[in-house]
Amino acid sequence: MAIVGMPGLGKTTLDKSVYNEFETNRHFDKKIWVCVSDTLVVNFILSRMLESLNPTRVGITGQDALL
Fold first, then answer.
1. Are 63 and 43 in contact (CB under 8 A)?
2. A biological process (GO) annotation for this entry (predicted)?
3. Which of 1, 34, 55, 61: CA 20 to 30 A from 40?
4. Cβ neighbour number for residue 3 with a 10 Å cutoff
5. For 48-61, what is each residue's pLDDT tens digit?
């Protein structure tokens, strides 16, 4: 789930609250926190997310395979 908006609106505060909430945590085996700058390279971000969750999946580049 993406939360976007102007700086200073409290997006990170909201994110941290939801991310660390016990009721949210008990529904997921793994969680990942991703911060994206203005430059969005989707395949690079997806690849790094997959690698951090499963290091044996290094080198996958196709967006369909990453998803």
1. yes
2. defense response
3. 55
4. 11
5. 888 888 777 667 66
User: Contact, 24 vs 34, CB < 8 A?
Assistant: no
Contact predicate 25/45, CB 8 Å = no
Predicted confidence at residue 63, as pLDDT, reads 66
CA-CA distance, 36 to 42, in Å (whole number)?
A: 10
Alpha helices (H) in the chain, listed in sequence order: 11-19, 22-25, 42-53, 63-66
Residue 26 token pair: 């008990």
Cβ-contact 44, 21 below 8 angstroms: no
Name the pLDDT band for 10 (thresholds 50, 70, 90). very high
